[in-house]
Automatic annotation (TrEMBL):
Residues 123-226 form the TonB-dependent receptor plug domain. Residues 514-759 form the TonB-dependent receptor-like beta-barrel domain. Coiled coil: none annotated. Signal peptide: none annotated. Belongs to the TonB-dependent receptor family. It comes from the Bacteria. InterPro entries: Beta-barrel_TonB (IPR000531), Beta-barrel_TonB_sf (IPR036942), CarboxyPept-like_regulatory (IPR008969), Plug_dom (IPR012910), Plug_dom_sf (IPR037066), TonB-dep_rcpt-like (IPR039426). PANTHER family: HEMOGLOBIN AND HEMOGLOBIN-HAPTOGLOBIN-BINDING PROTEIN 1-RELATED, TONB-DEPENDENT OUTER MEMBRANE RECEPTOR. Keywords: Cell outer membrane, Membrane, Receptor, Signal, TonB box, Transmembrane, Transmembrane beta strand, Transport. This is TonB-dependent receptor. Pfam families: CarbopepD_reg_2, Plug, TonB_dep_Rec_b-barrel. It is found in: Cell outer membrane.
Length: 786
């Protein structure tokens, strides 16, 4: 009997037992457990009095419990809240109940240390995930990229300052192998002016970073992992406004809020932000020609063509907790950006007039409804349409130097005089459903349709009407079966994903020297599983495996008109991903200690990576036959009351070319075989320490001091096997120090923060050995009304 047949029979056997058990416990109660603000409480323990039957609330405070017909007393308990006893009637007809727990003021400080909220629940789940409570960092001046760059296994490398392109890596996998979402919707739907470097931390409640294996509710072809930004989901009225100013003429403003009309139940939500920075930080030891001395000299010079600004606004209106919908919202957003381009992948090539700007519109609908069909089915629907226009200008026939001087040139700065226009229309829809077979077994479905039409042309030579658009249609169907045993001490998730992409594009024919339309289709099945075992209340292990596919992205094929050139021959990636990990929590008194460790393997075929063009400082995406990646990571955290927090992590990542024979030959061994993939950090770590004190200077206030250390070990910029080993460019070891202080008044209504980044003004590098900014100062004021 084949392995997959054995697995199938085993799953049917487990399912059959569950259904038989369901006949004996077919009478249930269900409801939600909330605090005094109507927020759902996660991890509430619920017991049937005088029995061993128990369950827990989910991340939103919902619960469901089966028992024999009749009345029984349920006990609700959660650290920091008073225990509650409530008599319930178990019957075939279920009417949801609402339970409200009252805070136990004597245990407030204990809850701060021991409480198991949504973040910790995700960390203890089956998937390898970093969950960051961003709400605690809302007073800092950092953007989301800077926050995530401090976490285990994450490395963010930008090509410049605010608004510049960046490389986001999870366990060594980067580029489009990592997908970004906001509330489960691709971040790209909001336009190019919205990304992790421009989003204010105030817009996020928490961030979930899935490594390697991604749960199907995101339903994506992410192969390296995914980042999901969760925005505040409270039904309460609030206003959150902040303004930050700092070095390099940086200004960042955000305004977020929500208003609910009590009579109609209509809710209005608004999110907006504005970013501006000249990004004119100092470039150190730049090579400049001195005509008077007839020789080159090294000088420190400011960046002069790197200004960036962006504006974003989103409004949505809807209702919650209706008989026909738990949540229904419609909305729209608009984003604009305007950026100058100082350099590309090589800082020796300097631009003085290259720039890019664009705008995007997004219209969407969101719908959620739980407990349909005898309280077993939950449904989630999203539909959105976005329209964007981007313009990249390169018309100056000049060659610039870092001092701003230039010489006439026979070509434009990037090699071909152009005004590249990109028009994109995108339709994205997603339907998700969860069906609870029994209390401990459920089926999950998700379907995504993603259609994109891209029209790219040089405005100096062509018209939009004369250029046939390229089209891409992605479809991803995901199915999963989840089982929970021993009161959720052992959880298994088995899943499968069907990937399909259809591509219509123009391909160059070298014989006729013309472009002709061509179609390309790809489809295949991926599959995997995730499991976690909670050995004790404090100790747990987890593991996951996935055979996944990563479909090509529009920017990789069509380019972006500025830094990325097109490659119409790019192929999808495929990878076998393995993750194993463990965690241990320990609490004593008002102390809390947590340690996490994980290992991973990525065996990737047709690996897509970036290849720089040193002549014009652009790059393009190409395939490597086989890349093998393995790594280890660990994190240790300690907390004492609300006084002291210490977090340390380290990540080791080893990726090498596993393609033995080059160009499909059988006897020519590739020069890069078994060599490390260049331009990828292999060892890096972080340490973050914060000390805070409540009611120190005045009542209802808090002072908090922060120190952060970031270390990145040296790594090769180019392939080790190319050129003289003594002259291979190396990106040296980097150690950066950051400090900050914040002061909150009136229970967090008024907040003031001051941060210093790169305190020692160290010479630091980022992607492609591009210099990062030196020491910088930022101050922020935030007003929060709720």
């Amino acid at each position: 009997m084949k392995l997959y047949q054995r697995i199938f029979i085993f799953l049917i056997f487990i399912l059959s037992i569950s259904l038989i058990r369901a006949q004996d416990t077919g009478f249930s109660v269900q409801g939600v457990v909330q605090d005094h603000t109507k927020q759902g409480l996660s991890g509430v323990n619920i017991f049937v009095e005088n029995t061993k039957i128990k369950t827990q609330t989910d991340q939103n405070g919902n619960f469901r419990m089966s028992y024999k017909k009749g009345e029984a007393v349920l006990i609700f308990s959660l650290d920091g809240y008073k225990k509650l006893r409530r008599k319930m009637n178990f019957s075939g007809e279920i009417s949801p109940v609402s339970i409200q727990l009252v805070a136990d003021q004597a245990a407030v400080e204990e809850v701060i240390v021991h409480g198991k909220g949504k973040v910790k629940a995700l960390q203890d789940g089956a998937f390898t995930v970093n969950a960051i409570d961003v709400a605690k960092l809302a007073n800092t001046t950092a953007d989301l990229n800077q926050v995530l760059n401090r976490t285990t296994g994450i490395k963010v490398r930008q090509q410049g300052g605010i608004g510049s392109d960046y490389n986001f890596s999870i366990n060594g996998m980067s580029g489009k192998a990592v997908k970004f979402f906001i509330d489960g919707v691709p971040l790209e739907m909001l336009g190019k002016g919205v990304d992790l470097s421009t989003l204010p931390v105030n817009m996020a409640d928490r961030v979930e970073i899935y490594k390697g294996v991604v749960p199907i509710h995101l339903s994506t072809d992410a192969m390296g992992g995914a980042v999901n930004i969760i925005t505040p989901g409270s039904s309460r009225n609030y206003l959150d406004a902040g303004i930050s100013v700092g070095s390099f003429n940086t200004q960042r403003i955000n305004l977020n809020g929500q208003f609910k009309d009590d009579k109609t139940g209509v809710i209005l939500r608004i999110n907006s932000f504005y970013n501006h920075s000249d990004n004119n930080y100092l470039m150190k030891d730049m090579k400049i020609w001195n005509a008077a001395k007839n020789e080159y000299e090294f000088r420190n010079l400011k960046r002069f063509n790197d200004r960036y600004q962006s504006v974003f606004g989103m409004a949505e209106v809807g209702v919650e907790n209706k008989s026909w919908a738990d949540s229904f919202f419609v909305g729209m957003s608009q984003s604009l950006f305007d950026k100058q381009i100082q350099t590309g992948s090589n800082q020796e090539v300097v631009y003085g007039g290259v720039k890019q700007n664009g705008e995007a519109y997004n219209y969407f609908m969101k719908y959620k409804k739980a407990n349909l069909f005898n309280d077993r089915l939950d449904v989630n629907v999203y539909a959105g349409f976005s329209k964007s226009v981007q313009k990249a200008t390169d018309t100056l026939m000049r060659k610039y130097s870092w001092d701003g001087s230039f010489e006439p040139s026979a070509t434009s700065e990037k090699g071909g005089r152009s005004i590249i226009m990109q028009h994109e229309d995108r339709l994205y829809s997603q339907v998700g459903a969860t069906y609870r077979i029994t209390e401990h077994h459920k089926l999950i479905f998700n379907y995504v349709l993603d259609y994109l039409k891209n029209t790219t042309f040089n405005q100096l030579e062509e018209r939009k009407e004369d250029v046939p658009p390229a089209k891409m249609t992605k479809q991803i169907l995901s199915m999963a079966y989840q089982q929970d045993f021993f009161n959720k001490h052992w959880t298994n998730i088995f899943f499968g994903k069907y990937y399909s992409v259809g591509l219509q594009k123009m391909v160059f024919d070298p014989v006729t020297r013309t472009d002709y339309p061509a179609k390309d289709n790809f489809s295949n099945w991926g599959y995997g599983f995730a499991t976690t075992v909670r050995i004790t209340r404090e100790l747990g292990i987890k593991g996951s495996f996935e055979r996944s596919y990563r479909l090509v992205e529009p920017q990789e094929i069509f380019g972006d008109g500025v830094a990325v050139t097109s490659n119409m021959n790019l192929k999808p990636e495929t990878s076998n991903n393995v993750n194993v990990g463990l965690y241990y929590n320990h609490h004593w008194g008002q102390h809390a200690f947590r340690i996490e460790g994980a290992g991973y393997i990525r065996d990737t075929k047709d690996f897509i990576y970036t290849v720089p063009n040193l002549y014009n400082s652009t790059f393009k995406y190409e395939n490597l036959s086989n890349i093998f990646t393995r790594g280890l990571e660990g994190e240790v955290s300690y907390q004492y009351k609300r006084l002291l927090n210490v977090l340390m992590n380290v990540s080791y990542n080893k990726a090498y070319d596993n393609t033995k024979f080059a160009n499909n030959s059988e006897d020519v061994v590739s020069a890069t075989y078994k060599k490390d993939v260049p331009n990828q950090p292999w060892l890096f770590g972080n340490m973050n320490v914060s000390i805070g004190k409540d009611d120190w200077l005045q009542r209802d206030s808090r002072v908090e001091l922060y120190y952060g250390l970031q270390m990145t070990e040296w790594f090769y910029k180019n392939w080790k096997s190319y050129g003289n080993p003594q002259n291979i460019p190396v990106i040296p070891r980097q150690t950066l120090h950051n400090i900050g202080i914040s002061y909150s008044m009136k229970n967090g209504r008024y907040n003031l923060a001051f941060d210093v980044t790169n305190l020692s003004d160290a010479l630091a590098y980022d992607n492609f050995k591009l210099q990062k900014q030196g020491r910088a100062f930022y101050i922020k004021f935030r007003y929060l009304l709720k």
